[in-house]
Design brief:
Blueprint (H helix, E strand, L loop, with lengths): L4 E3 L6 E3 L1 E2 L18 E5 L7 E4 L16 E4 L9 E4 L3 E5 L1 H15 L2 H14 L6 H18 L3 H14 L5 H21 L3 H14 L6 H26 L3 H14 L6 H11 L2 E6 L14 H10 L1 E2 L1 E7 L2 E6 L2 E5 L5 E6 L13 H10 L10 H6 E6 L4 E6 L13 E2 L15 E7 L2 E6 L11 E6 L3 H10 L4 E2 L4 H7 L5 E5 L4 E7 L9 H9 L3 H9 L9 E2 L29 H22 L9 E5 L3 H15 L5 E5 L14 E6 L4 H9 L10 H11 L4 H18 L3 E6 L2 E5 L2 E2 L16 E2 L2
Parallel strand pairs: 9-20, 9-21, 25-26, 25-27
Antiparallel strand pairs: 1-2, 3-5, 4-5, 4-8, 6-7, 10-17, 11-12, 13-14, 14-16, 15-16, 18-19, 19-20, 21-29, 22-29, 23-27, 23-28, 24-28, 30-31
Helix pairs in contact: 1-2, 1-3, 2-3, 3-4, 4-5, 5-6, 5-7, 7-8, 8-9, 15-17, 16-18, 19-20, 20-21
Amino acid sequence: MMMLGSVGTHLQAEIINYAEVGRPEDPGLELLQEDPHDLIFFKKEAGGGWVKARLLDLPGREMPANPKGQLKFRINGIETKDFVAKWDEIELIDFWEKRLERETADRIKSGDFTGAYPFLSVLIRDYPNRPNLRTLRSEYLLRDALSRFKKGEIGPALAMLEELHRYAPEYKSDSVISGIGLTTDRLMQRLMEEQKLELAQQLLARLEKDYRGQNLASIKKWNQTFLEMAQERQDAAIAALEAEDFRTARRLSRESIHLKPSIPNGQELVRKIDQIYPLVNVGVLQTAKNPDPTRLDNWAARRAGRLLYRVLFEMQGAGPEGGEYEFLFGETEQSADRQEFKMLLQPEKLESPLDRINGFLVADRLAERVDPGSPVYFSPWAAAIKAIGLDGPKEIDCLLRRPNVLPSALIQMTVDGSWFGGEPGSPTGDYRRDVVEGDVVRYTLVGKQRTATQPREIVEIRTESAADGVAKLLKGEVDVLDQLFPADAVRLESNRKFRVAKYPLPSVHMLVPCSDHAYLAERAFRRALVYGTNREDILSGELLEGLEVPGCRVLSGPFPAGLEQNDPLGYAYDQSIAPRRYEPRLAKLLITMNANTLESQAKRKKEAVPELKPIRLAHPPENLSRSACEAIKSQWELLDLEIELVELPVGMAFPEPGTADLAYVAAAVWEPIIDARRVLGPNGMAGSTDQLVGLGLRRLEESRNWKDARDRLLDLHYIVHHELPIIPLWQLVDSYAYNRNLLGVGSDVVSLYQNAEKWRLSQ
C-alpha cells in the first residue's frame, strides 16, 4: 500500500491511519482524540501491515468463527473510497470497544486511575451494554477508593465506596461494606477531633438510614460513643440542677439530647429544668449598648428596649391608615373633626407600678414635650398641640391646632422609672439587664412571673454572622433568631423543627451623610454616587443570594414601598418615581462636572479648591451591612474614588461625629408621617438644612386629613429623590425564626419581644 497521513484537528500532529509493515504505536491517552476505529492486521503472506478502519458492521462486533469471502471497509481519512480484503488474508481485528476495555483494565491494574477514568467514561457513554463493563467499573471504584484511603483522602474514598455499593451491591459486598465501615470510622474520628459534632451526627444519622441491617461496624461504635458523651453531660446537668445552677443545668441538658436525642430521660430532664427555671436564648447580630424602644436607626436598641421599658403609645402593627397604637395606661378617643384627642386612664386594670399613674403626671409629661427647653421636646408635637387640659385625674383632653390624622404617633415616649418616683432612665419593663459577658447579655425577670412559664431569663447571644446564628439554632444553642438573612429565611422554612415568620413592617436601608465632607455636601456628587451604585445587583446577588423574596426591592426614596401592589404600608411612597439606574459613565461625568464647579466657585471666592478626601463609609458590625458596604466600596472605587470602611463598635448604629462621612443605616421608617422629620429634619439622622426638604416637612405636619398627608408625603418623596439628603438603597423584609417548642412568640409582631411576657417553653 501507499502510505498516507491526515492531520488530526485536536492533536495538531500527523496521525498514521495505515501502514504496510509493523504495528501502530501506542498513542496512550491521545487515543481518545482519534476518531473511533477498528484495527485490521494482515497476515505476512498477504503482505502484512495494518489499517485503521471505520467501525465495522459485524454481527456481535466479533470476528466470524469461519469467515468466507471478503471484508469491505473504509480507512479513516479516506472517506470516499471503499476497500476490500479477503478474510483469509486477515490475521486479527482489534475492535475499538475492546481496546478501550483493555486500556481501562491495564491502567486500573497499574494504579493509573486518572488515566483510566476517560477511557471508562467513553465506555459508559458509548457502550453501556458491554458485558464486562459492570465489573470493570466496579473494579475501578474499589481500587481507586483503596488508593485514596491510603493517601488519607478519606472523604473521596468513602464517596467512591458508597457509589460502588449503590451501583453494584453484589460486587465483593463483604469487602465493600468492610471498607465503608473502616472509612466512616476514620472520617468520624477526624470530625470529632476537629470539633465538628454537627457534621459527625449528620453523617452517623445518614449511615443508620442507608445501611440499616447491614452490620456496619462504625455505626455501633459511634452510637455508643455519642451515648456516653450524652450521658456524661446529662449527669453533669443533674448535678448542676441539684446545686441550683440552673443556667448550667439547662445548657448541659440540651447538649445531652443534641448529642443523643434518644438518650433515656433526656427530654424529661429538659422539661423539668424549664419548669423550674424558664430561660430563652436569643441569637442576635448585635447586642444593644443603650436600649431604647423608640430608636429609629438602631435595631438592637429598639429590640432590647422593649424588654426594659414601656412606651406611652406602643405600635402594635400596621393598619390601612398608618400604625395601630396601644395606650399604655388605658384607652383613647378622637373627635370626628380630629381636633380633640382624649386619653382615658384605667389604673384599676393595670398592674403595679403602672396603677400608680394619674392624669396629672401624664399631662405634665405631655407638656414637657412642648417646651423647647426640655430634653424631650418634639417639634411636631409642639406644632400640633394647642392646649392640654384635665377632666379629673383619669381624663386628659388634648386640643389640636388643626386636624391631625395620627396624634398618638406624636407621643411615643419612653416611660422610665422617674414616672413612678424612681431614678431617671431606670427600667420599667418586666426585665433588667443583669450580666454582660462578652457577646452574651442576660436580661433577668424582676419580681414575680406573670405566668408559671414566663421566662426568668432572656439571654441575648451575639453571633458572628447570620450563618453562624442559623448554625446555633440548628444545634439548639439558641431558641430564637432575631434577624435572618432573607436567603436563610427561605431555607429554614422547610425545616419542621422551626417556625419562620416575617415582621409586618420592612426596614428601609439608606446611606446618610454625617460629616462636613465638601464633596458630599454637593447634590451633583451625591447623585453621582447613586448612579455609580448597582443597587439591584447588590440586593439580588449579595443580600438575597439570587432568591426571589417578595417585598425586597430597590427604593427611590426614604419611605417603605409596601410589600405588594397597592399595599397601604406604602402610603408615603410614590410608585411612579423609578429608582435611578446604574450608569457608571454618567457617574464619572457628574463627578468631573462637580469638581469643575467647585474649582470655579473657589476661584471666584479666591479660596483654595476643596480636596476630594477619602470617603469614610461606616456600617454596623454585622455581616449584612458589611457585605453591602464592601460591594458599594468596590463599585465606587471603579469611579476612581478612595473609600474607607469604618466598622462601628458593637451596639452602635450611627457613628460619632468626625469618625465617618456616610453611615449605612437600616431604619424602621414605619410611620412616615412622623418619621419623615426624624430621618430628614435638621435634628434628624440626615440633619438636612435643604430649604425644599424643610418646606416639605412643614407642609406635611400641617396636613388636615389623610388625603393631605398622603399627597404631601408623595411631594416629599419627589423632593428627596431630587435633592438626595439621603442616598436611598433598598427595603428588606426582615424575618425571625424560633424553635416550635417556644410558644407565645406571635406571628405578626412589630418587635421580637412584643409578647415576651407570654413566652413559654414546651417539650
